[in-house]
Amino acid sequence: MLEIRGLDVHYGGVHALRGLSLTVAAGEVVALLGNNGAGKTTTLSAVSGLLRPSGGAILFEGADITRDPPHRITARGLVHVPEGRRVFSALTVQENLQLGGYLVRDQAEVRRRIERVYDLLPRLAERRRQRGGTLSGGEQQMLAIGRALVTGPRLLLLDEPSMGLAPLVVASVMELVAGINAEGTSVLLVEQNAVAALRVAHRGYVIENGTCVLGGPAAELREDSRVVEAYLGGA
Ligand code: ATP
């Protein structure tokens, strides 16, 4: 479904991605692990068209999207939820969700998708008239993901959804990811929280210095001594 081939990204003189390659198959949750500055966020930004790569290729469902503008990529069903849950704090939950439908012509379809998000996330339904800024961190993260669902993703790019959340809330965010995946949406999940990510993912990659140094089924990565030492808090 998604294939990244030999991707290079520069920020001025900084060579942030160095020939990075990875794939996401239809129906998969794939975790992208790595330390601060490894290149995880840069990878997602390149896939969603926010950054122009200096080399390599990005294919989505067989089409070369490497140089497509962000709105064209979103319209194909590749939807990015950036780091830091950017909900509109002055807008209500309902209005935030409606914004997710801005590329969708069929307004009845947008309403159906919003109701689907409320079914999946009853806490948001209870708060539909509340302003985004008054929600807890976990609820804001759910709202950011809910808004992406209204856009109609076939592949969801999630950047550190667990950041700054308490363990119980992290668990419910990961449960949401599993639920979204069970309904047929593929997910590329960037996480520093390797334990949580490898629990929900089918496969994973480890990025170091802008390239994938390790990849495999999540069950194998959980047992891999290099992953255990570097990302799962020692042996
Ligand atoms: P984090 O978890 O901290 O977001 P990351 O793995 O997502 O880490 P990136 O944010 O993709 O890492 O950063 C990869 C490299 O690119 C780092 O060396 C970083 O310093 C550099 N970088 C990122 N954004 C910029 C920018 N706007 N200008 C210059 N360098 C940047």
Automatic annotation (TrEMBL):
Cleavable signal peptide: none
Name of this protein: ABC transporter ATP-binding protein
PANTHER family: HIGH-AFFINITY BRANCHED-CHAIN AMINO ACID TRANSPORT ATP-BINDING PROTEIN LIVF
UniProt keyword list: Amino-acid transport, ATP-binding, Nucleotide-binding, Transport
Coiled-coil annotated residue ranges, if any: none
Boundaries of every ABC transporter domain copy: 2-234
Sequence similarity: Belongs to the ABC transporter superfamily.
A Gene Ontology BP annotation from the UniProt entry: L-amino acid transport
Lineage: Bacteria, Bacillati, Actinomycetota, Actinomycetes, Streptosporangiales
SUPFAM superfamilies recorded: P-loop containing nucleoside triphosphate hydrolases
GO molecular function: ATP binding; ATP hydrolysis activity; branched-chain amino acid transmembrane transporter activity
Top-level division of the source organism's lineage: Bacteria
SMART domains per record: AAA (SM00382)
